[in-house]
Amino acid sequence: MNGLTNPDRAGAPVRAVRQGAVLAVTCLALATVVSAMASLNVALPDIARETHANQTQLSWIIDAYSLIFASFLLLAATLGDRFGRRKALLAGLGLFAGVSLAATFATDPDVLITLRAVLGIAAAFVMPATLSTITSTFPRAQQARAVSIWAAVAGASAVLGLLASGAVLEVWSWRSVFWLNVVLAGASLIGTYLFVPESAQPGKQRIDVVGAVLTVAGLGALVYSVIQAPEHGWGSVRTLVGIGVGLAVLIAFVAWELRHPHPLLDPRLFRHMPFAAGSLSITLQFFAFFGFIFVVMQYLQLVRGDSALIAAVSVLPMSAAMIPSARLSPRLVARRGARGPWTVGLLLVATGLLVLAQLDADSSYWLIVGGLVPLGAGMGLAMTPATAAITDALPPRLQNVGSAVNDLSRDLGGALGIAVLGSVLNAGYRDELDLTGLPAPVAEAARSSLAAANHVGLATGNSSLIEQARDAFASGMHLALISGAGAAVLAAVVVTFLLRRAGKTSTVVGEAPDSDTGHRLAKSVR
Prior knowledge:
- The protein is mostly helical and 526 residues long.
- It contains 19 helices and two strands.
- A hairpin with an 8-residue loop joins β1 and β2 (15-16).
């Protein structure tokens, strides 16, 4: 309704808040940063051909954004809450537009990786501000509907970003994807300036810089080691030490947060079972989802030979199933409780990925549709109750924490999914590729990526190399998608267990029978 107002602290005239406009603008800003996680996937073959990026560099071009996005979310959310979420949106969108413009001039894969990392910092200021703006603007009775729309946009934006990118790639180079970012960020920037009210929770507490550094270092070491694993070997000392260091730093982060008076994220929040279930579910859902997008876009273009636009259009059945199921999910939860629709959604995600894991170079498109529909419907069903479990578990004064955790779970899951499933794909591709008898330069190029193998095969007239490389890629994709399905099944099992443990306890942190714990949680983030 338009009756809500935004009083100025200095006593200035009160301005009416147009909730519909706020929801539209925040969802557009959300779509801008979420679509950037996936939209460049459709341009990977063109990027590989023009910049000579190998498969590992391609993984980094996609994952640098997601990794830095996730690493800076908690710090960015804290700064936005303290100094103003509208300010965070304006600053983040402005930086996003400027860096996207700079990326249109990049010619080197390492430069592109760096620019994508800076884009991740910009996105980290945007995404948490969108959900916390919604939860602070809408009355609690209307938040479920607004959050369901937000969740639907968050899920569908990846696919819609692929479609928009595929369309512009038909008439221009991969740089057009970054021009699309500029346009979306510019429109969101104008809308934020005109319609979004300021909201903040100012305070004098210190910013947890040490926690932020530990987050970036731990996640960076972990994801770097996973992405580089096919290069050095999964069992190599370098890989195992890197993963061990990353996990050790993240454990140190948890220990630091437990002692800090104003932590970025209080680990005690995860004692609340629905909150923990929602966080884990979103992490594993998007682990599978973004890993799938990274893999399937290359399959459609490099194995099936589809154009960028056809590849993007090919995954639309997933969006067509996801959007209505996300809108239906709150009604099902209201009638039957959260556990049923939530668990069914996760199992549908696993089913879709298992079907898609059967794809090879000669598969019918109907097999693709047979996997995309349950995958999209499952994502829609599971996303809304998972997001609501996080936000509903917290009282209004802690909504900023809920927004940050929801976004962190989504982006961390996406970053790890691209890293892990991309590495599984890369390792499977290299293991299945038999390059015996080929000259060393040709063999090295073919081993670097499927795009390079196709290019070398066409240049040398070696059709058998192309066919073998495509079969090797399909074999690696099979392993990657089965791994994604396993993650979705694990999420379903853990969510069921945690929700059963929750039983009849209070659904709001700070209003639970354990009032001392609730008081500590509230105090730690005030």
